Fold this protein.
Amino acid sequence: MGTAHRFGICCCVAVVAGCAKAGDRTDTAAAVDTAAATTTAPPPASLSLADVAGKWQMRSIPEDGQDTTATQYVLTATPDTTGWTIAFPNRRQPVRLHVSVNGDSIMTRTEPYESARRKGVQAVTESVLRQQGSTLVGRSVAHYRTRGADSVLRLRSEGTRAP
C-alpha cells in the first residue's frame, strides 16, 4: 500500500472521528458494516442458455445521432455457448458469436464481419442481453475498422422469438 493511499485513509478516519459528538461513542466500523449489509442487493438469478435457445427476430437501433434506422437480423441461440450466430437478411453466411453468461446477462462478441450498416467496412459487435419475459433486450456496441481511429456505434437491441 502506497504512502499516498495510507495518508488518504488516515485523513478519512480523522474526519469521521472529528465529526462524532463527544457523547457519541458508537462503533464506526460496525455502523459502516451494517449500512453496507443493508444496501447490498442479492445477485440476480443465473440465466440458463437453454431458456433462450431458439431463433430470435432482433432489431438494433442507434442510441443517438441522426441515423435511427433499425438493423434487423436473426439471432440463433443454442442451449450452450457453442453454435450461436447472427444472420442478416440477404446474406448467405451467418456471423459466429462468442458467448458467455454472468448472472442474468448474456455477453456476445462477433467475429469480424462486413457491417450491415456500412458497406465494405469490417465490424466487431459486442452485446449484453437479458431476457425480460418473452423478449431479449440489451445494448450493443459496434466497433468499425476504419483507416483512422476506431469508430464506435452504440445501439439498443430488442428481439422476440421467431415463429
